[in-house]
């Protein structure tokens, strides 16, 4: 239990340090306010020279109080460590961080990668950094809409405000690049690269296709019974997971057996079992 707790807090700490570096080295000096409370703090830093970390912490205080009322103590406490740690590390590292580039594109790209990587690590170790995530979770208790949509709206308002304050459309556009890149990197850290593809095949020749998958690709396939609501016909549905390099071969197999087959192709981020990674259970 202790080692699990220690590993999680260590992971969150590493994540917030990476995020702080992304902000201090790239986004804040370049005036790229990429949404969230960090974006608001970046704007206030350039307007009134307020320290970014402590500004973020101050802005989070009313959110934490509101969160206790709407979401309860447990949810709020889980967000506390990451929020405080990020604010502290941003201000601790800022005086020692060299200006690595004056190019806005490079700043938006590298800032987005580092903040996305850092936040992804924080989330992977069951931490959060408060801010707009906390605000969106609170709003959801009132309006009941998707948190992702709320985050998009909040980030959009911050970016628009930065564009007006800094009188620069370019800075707003670079901030949008950073937001997109940060979100993509977070998903990449949490889910991993898509290294396999899942095929769902609906065909009257499922047996032929399944045998070809077994013999020509040396992959497995699972069949179950399906019922067409429009035609009223019974059909078999095949599920097979293959490597990305085998996608074209499987499409060819299906086309040869049944050109009219219905195929659903989806990304698979992790596969455990024969032919892929072994299932391993870690004991704490």
TrEMBL record:
Q: Where in the cell is it found?
A: Cell membrane
Its GO CC terms?
Answer: plasma membrane
> What CDD domains does the entry give?
YitT_C (cd16380)
Please give the coiled-coil regions recorded for this protein.
none
Q: How does it sit in the membrane?
A: Multi-pass membrane protein
| InterPro entries listed in its UniProt record | DUF2179, N-reg_PII/ATP_PRibTrfase_C, UPF0750_membrane, YitT
Bilayer-spanning residue ranges: 9-28, 48-68, 80-98, 104-123, 143-165, 171-190
State the UniProt keywords alphabetically: Cell membrane, Membrane, Transmembrane, Transmembrane helix
Q: Pfam families of this UniProt entry?
A: DUF2179, YitT_membrane
Question: In this protein, which residues make up the domain named DUF2179?
Answer: 219-273
Protein's UniProt name = DUF2179 domain-containing protein
């Amino acid at each position: 239990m202790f080692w699990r707790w220690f590993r999680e807090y260590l992971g969150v700490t590493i994540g917030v340090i990476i995020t702080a570096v992304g902000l201090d080295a790239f986004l804040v000096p370049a005036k790229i306010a990429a949404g969230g409370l960090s974006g608001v703090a970046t704007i206030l830093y350039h307007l009134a020279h307020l320290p970014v970390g402590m500004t973020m912490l101050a802005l989070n205080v009313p959110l934490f109080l509101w969160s206790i009322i709407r979401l309860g103590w447990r949810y709020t406490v889980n967000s506390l460590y990451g929020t405080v740690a990020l604010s502290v590390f941003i201000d601790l590292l800022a005086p020692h961080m060299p200006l690595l580039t004056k190019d806005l594109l490079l700043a938006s790209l590298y800032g987005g990668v580092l903040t996305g990587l850092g936040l992804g690590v924080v989330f992977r170790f069951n931490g959060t950094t408060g801010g707009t995530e906390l605000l969106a979770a609170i709003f959801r208790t009132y309006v009941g809409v998707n948190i992702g949509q709320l985050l998009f709206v909040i980030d959009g308002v911050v970016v628009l405000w930065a564009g007006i304050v800094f009188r620069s459309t370019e800075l707003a556009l670079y901030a949008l690049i950073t937001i997109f890149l940060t979100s993509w990197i977070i998903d990449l850290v949490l889910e991993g690269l898509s290294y396999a593809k899942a095929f769902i095949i609906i065909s009257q020749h499922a047996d032929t296709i399944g045998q070809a998958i077994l013999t020509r690709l040396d992959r497995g396939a699972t069949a179950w019974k399906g019922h067409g609501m429009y035609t009223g016909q019974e059909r078999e549905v095949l599920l097979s997971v293959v490597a990305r390099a085998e996608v074209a071969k499987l499409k060819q197999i299906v086309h040869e057996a049944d050109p009219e087959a219905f195929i659903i192709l989806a990304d698979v981020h992790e596969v455990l079992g024969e032919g892929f990674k072994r299932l391993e259970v870690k004991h704490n």
